[in-house]
Design brief:
- The complex is a heterodimer of chains A (255) and B (267).
- Chain A contains eleven helices and no strands.
- Chain A is mainly alpha-helical and 255 residues long.
- Chain A has a single domain, classed as MetI-like (MetI-like fold, Orthogonal Bundle), CATH 1.10.3720.10.
- In chain A, α3 runs antiparallel to α8, α5 packs across α6 and α8 runs antiparallel to α10.
- Chain A is elongated, with a radius of gyration of 21 Å.
- The C terminus of chain A is likely disordered.
- Chain B is an all-alpha fold and 267 residues long.
- In chain B, 75% of the residues lie in helices and 0% in strands.
- The longest helix of chain B has 36 residues.
- The chains are: A mainly alpha (255), B mainly alpha (267).
- At the A-B interface, α4, α5, α8, α9 and α10 of A face α1, α5, α6, α7 and α9 of B.
């Protein structure tokens, strides 16, 4: 054991990245990266499917105005660590194991507030003129929701999905502290073995994964949103979202 | 702006609302019952040999009150110090942003960049160059900046032009106008920012458990490691209590500090 470690003792995190023999217990980087991304994407997809239709419906009918701000408050008040710990404890007591169910469950819960808040605010802000004219043209309420409000709300919804997913990738790393896999496992083993370079390398990998997700989703959002409804940066969002309701539509990061 | 006519059913709005509340209540109760049964495990045996809460740990163990108090104090310190520091730094940044408008974009982008750095990563990198305490304070402070700067700038920006004109008309100087008109009118938004930053920080303090701090979240990690669920429950409960408590306290401060904002029309 010691001979093996001595043979390949890295002296900085860069060497650690190149020396794959240091990762016999924790697993190779691509494997853990894949775990992290898979967990985050799956949880994000579940959250979108669960949340967006409800939020669009509620916002269209102007219902649950208070709930929209309270769901964000709730998400903020309950610490991430709490949700993760509870999910894992419940899962273990029921014989479901460490991964992937508890981590998926916790991540899904974490993704719901930002997606709900952004969708709700976006649909709420959809131009009333466009909605009225659609109604006057004889569109049914469901057609208005799917054909008018949803496309108009798309930029802001995608912003919500983007912040949520970035947060999920960052939070997935925390799952390693509770026995899961993923990129956070290097940080955890680094702390456990007092291995500074492993901590640094792990931290940089987590940060790179989160920021890479952010960047890729920014590009995707640009490609998906039709030209006509693209949010003019600064104008609408700065004026309505931040000033009037700084409480509801604040970005979610820092998992 | 009212509910569209096509969608309304035959029942009166009042009845519909009560039906909705009923459905919601039933759903919440059902979920709670299900979760409770899950928490306790499938069999009675699990419950007998390994109960979810050992009350004697909480009430009869001698060291428990001390430990709880130490960790709560640490949690509050790790929340208050970064928020105060963050408020000071954000005030300077906002002043720059408001004085030189072109810096608004770069400053918020920078704060947003700090906010997207995963906390685990930030603690991990900072702790290799600093003491644990300093690393935690630096990381937590950097996370408050985005919320604070955004709300400070938005608050001052939201001051109605008429109020500024009136202040100018009264012959107020720039400094006097800022402290007597702009700051008071922006105060609700700024205080909301401080409240949100505080509650967010309370949650993030927990992650500093990886560098031997963690406040009350220490119990979560310790209990998890020792497979002792009592500590997990107590730590989680305390964390939520702290967040709710400070949230309510700061809401109260907001109301007391800005009595005019409750009157209709002004805000």
């Amino acid at each position: 054991m010691s001979a093996l470690l001595l043979a390949a003792e890295p002296t900085n995190f860069w060497e650690w990245l190149h020396e794959s023999s240091t990762r016999t217990i924790t697993g190779p980087i691509p494997h853990n990266l894949w775990l992290t991304l898979w967990h985050a994407l799956a949880a994000g997809a579940i959250a979108v499917v669960l949340t967006v239709p409800v939020a669009v419906f509620l916002a269209h009918h102007r219902k649950a105005e208070l709930a929209a701000s309270w769901i964000v408050n709730l998400g903020r008040i309950i610490p991430t660590v709490t949700i993760l710990a509870f999910a894992v404890v419940i899962s273990l007591r029921n014989g479901l194991g460490f991964a992937p169910y508890p981590i998926l469950f916790a991540l899904t819960l974490l993704a719901i507030p930002p997606i709900f808040a952004n969708t709700y605010t976006a649909v709420r802000q959809a131009s009333p003129d466009a909605v009225s004219s659609a109604r006057a043209m004889g569109l049914t309420e469901r057609q208005i929701m799917t054909g008018v409000e949803l496309p108009l709300a798309l930029p802001l919804i995608l912003t919500g999905v983007r912040t949520a997913l970035t947060q999920l990738v960052a939070t997935e790393a925390l799952g390693a502290l509770f026995g899961g896999g993923g990129l956070g496992i290097y940080v955890r083993f680094g702390f456990a073995g007092d291995d500074i370079y492993q901590i640094q390398a792990g931290a940089l990998l987590v940060a790179a994964a989160a920021m890479g997700t952010d960047l890729v989703l920014a590009v995707v959002a640009r490609l998906v949103v039709p030209k006509g409804v693209r949010a003019r940066p600064g104008r609408r969002r700065a004026a309505t979202v931040t000033v009037r309701a700084p409480d509801v539509a604040s970005a979610a990061g820092a998992g | 702006m009212t509910a569209p006519a096509l969608a309304s059913g035959t029942r009166s709005p009042g009845t519909r609302r009560w039906v909705a509340y009923g459905v919601l209540a039933v759903a919440i109760l059902a979920f709670a019952a299900w979760a409770w049964s899950r928490v306790h495990g499938l069999s009675e045996d699990t419950q007998a040999t390994n109960p979810i809460i050992r009350w004697e740990w909480l009430f009869t163990r001698e060291r428990t009150p001390d430990e709880l108090w130490t960790r709560t104090k640490q949690h509050l310190e790790l929340t208050v110090v970064p928020v105060v520091l963050g408020t000071a730094i954000a005030a300077v940044l906002s002043a720059i942003a408001l004085r030189f408008r072109w810096t608004v974009g770069p400053i918020t982008t920078f704060a947003g960049f700090l906010y997207t750095i995963p906390s685990l990563a930030l603690f991990g990198v900072l702790v290799t160059y600093n003491s644990n305490w300093t690393a935690a304070v630096i990381a937590l402070t950097s996370y408050t900046l985005l919320i604070l700067v955004r709300n400070m700038v938005a608050g001052i920006d939201g001051v109605p032009q008429a109020a500024i004109d009136a202040a100018d008309g009264l012959g107020m100087g720039r400094v006097q106008r800022f402290f007597k008109v702009e700051l008071p009118l922006a105060l609700p938004v700024i205080l909301t920012g401080i409240r949100v930053a505080t509650v967010t920080t309370i949650g993030l303090v927990g992650i500093s458990a990886v560098i031997q701090l963690g406040g009350v979240a220490y119990f979560i990690f310790d209990g998890y490691r020792r497979e002792f669920t009592t500590e997990v429950v107590v730590g989680s409960g305390l964390a939520v209590l702290l967040a709710v408590g400070l949230d309510l306290l700061l809401r109260l401060v907001e109301r007391l500090a800005t009595p005019w904002s409750r009157r209709a029309g002004l805000r």
